[in-house]
Amino acid sequence: MSLHIKKNDLVIVVSGKSKGTQGRVLKVIRETGKVIVEGVNRIKRHTKPTPRNREGGIIEKEAALPASKVMLLDTKTNKPTRTKVGQDKEGKKIRVAVKSGTVLDG
To answer: Which CATH architecture has domain 1-73?
Structure first.
């Protein structure tokens, strides 16, 4: 599955309970088409004490959300943007913001 989002991209959530929240992509799960975004879609897990985690208790962490619910942030306009595939001078594929034409890779 091809996704428009990569690890370490700055994104904004466009729908759901975290709508409007910005964050950095921590992980991309291509098989399911989901992403994990820093500080977004936080869940609580109740864990028992284990040899690795002696304390146990309630742990808060980010859960995956569908990649279709996030959009890349355009660094030039600081607004969400759609992307298209372009080419740089060497012929390598790059992502380009549709409206502003800003290069989002590199």
So the answer is: Roll (2.30)
